[in-house]
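Field reference: "sequence" (input) and "structure" (output). Example, Imidazole glycerol phosphate synthase subunit HisH:
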Amino acid sequence: MTADPKAAREADGLVVPGVGAYAACMEGLNSVRGGRIIGERLAGGRPVLGICVGMQILFERGIEHGVLTEGCGEWPGTVERLEAPVVPHMGWNTVRAPEDSRLFAGLDKDTRFYFVHSYGVRRWELEAADHIRAPLVTWADHAGDEFVAAVENGPLWATQFHPEKSGDAGAHLLKNWLDTLS
């Protein structure tokens, strides 16, 4: 754990955690020029893992309580309130990962992860292009409302759920990410 920009740039892997509100997370990140550090790492092919709000701030923008906040812009899209009858989405849930996912490799399709959030990305907006490999997007559903549960995009991986609170499944997933570090 560090607020030292040099240490964050040079680390084998950078985890961007997040708990709380999108705007507060971006304010903290901006105060240490964290968005720039994330961008520099990704430009150099250096691994970054976003968790929960740490995933959300990787998108272009978030809207919470009517407040629009600009994010890091690594992916197009808007973090918005879930439209499920019961919010927050709190507890264990399954995900639908792509077959070739490295993040979920070795985990059964019915594996459950721990979620606690009221906001998420409900539409994937990045269009595929012939010359760019499309990110792998994992989805989940809460009471009929679909949202992005994880993304794998070159050296940038992220989860809406909390792997650190997801027991053995979360530990396995984190090991999959750690195995990509050099």
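The helical segments are 5-10, 22-31, 34-43, 53-56, 167-178.
The longest strand covers residues 145-153.
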